[in-house]
């Protein structure tokens, strides 16, 4: 089990480096498949996708303080998930992590 975590760790870390990094990590994890990497790819993909969706939504009604809140939430979730990948832990990001695992089951 520990070997599987170490093998998938690089892919998990890459997934947190922007939305493009998450897409690259999806292709990196196609063969061989690592459960640790898959978990973090789903978390990172959800964080990035949620950020871009809310950024697009907030661009319609520009509110400077709303954008500050968006960036603070994004960075807090990103940092939490990234530290989990660095420390070899499969911990869901607060509030939304379990949903990300359910919604993004297409990520194998």
Gist?
This protein is mainly alpha-helical.
Distance between the ends: 18 Å
| Bulk shape | elongated
Beta fraction:
under 5%
Largest sheet: none
- Uncertain runs are none
| Strand elements, count | 0
Helices and strands, in order, run as HHHHH
Structural class: mainly alpha
Radius of gyration, whole Å: 14 Å
What is the number of helices? Answer: 5
Q: Specify the helix fraction band.
A: over 70%
What would the average pLDDT be, to the nearest integer? 86
Give a written overview of the molecule.
- The protein is mainly alpha-helical and about 110 residues long.
- The protein is about 75% helix and about 0% strand.
- About 30% of the residues are buried.
Key traits:
single chain; 108 residues; mainly alpha; 75% helix
Reconstruct the topology from this structure.
Elements: H1 2-15, H2 18-28, H3 35-60, H4 64-86, H5 97-103
Helix pairs in contact: 1-2, 1-3, 2-3, 3-4
